[in-house]
Amino acid sequence: MGRDLKLADAERRYLEILGIDTHHVEAYKGLAALYLKQKWYPQAFETFQFIVKMKRADDVVYAGLAEIAEAQENPIEAERMRLKAVECSPGQPQRHAELAGYYIQQGHPEKALSSIKQATELDAKSGKYLEMELEVALRMEHPKEARKYYDHLRLVTDDRTRFQSWREKVEALEAKKGEKGK
Description:
mainly alpha
């Protein structure tokens, strides 16, 4: 109940700002993000689309539209919006990782590969991105790449339980492909 009151208060504040300045893009983005968080997809979509019509859309807007398309099970539109989010902000690793995550979820690790590589190039110390890179290598059944990403991941993360799981997966792939690790 307290959470609902906070969301309602936030919505009221955004609407107050928009009552004063009908072109306040950040208020529209905040309102759309609030609707998205509550899974009010029609309201979020309408708000994000308004920002697009204002010609003020950025990676946040397109990522939000992608999330709505995914929730509505529209993979073509979801991919298109994820690509636009990356195009708007090519230097932001999060957008590349979101695109890679989308491709992984859709069962296309080969498409995810270039996006997750770009994310790790932009943020080489991110355990999350390295783990995604390892996941892609495992799904594509590339044991040498999987071993390389596993070894790199060990240097930046210290989660023992996950190391065991990753090592087992890498070793199983190496055994399946007839290659030995280090």
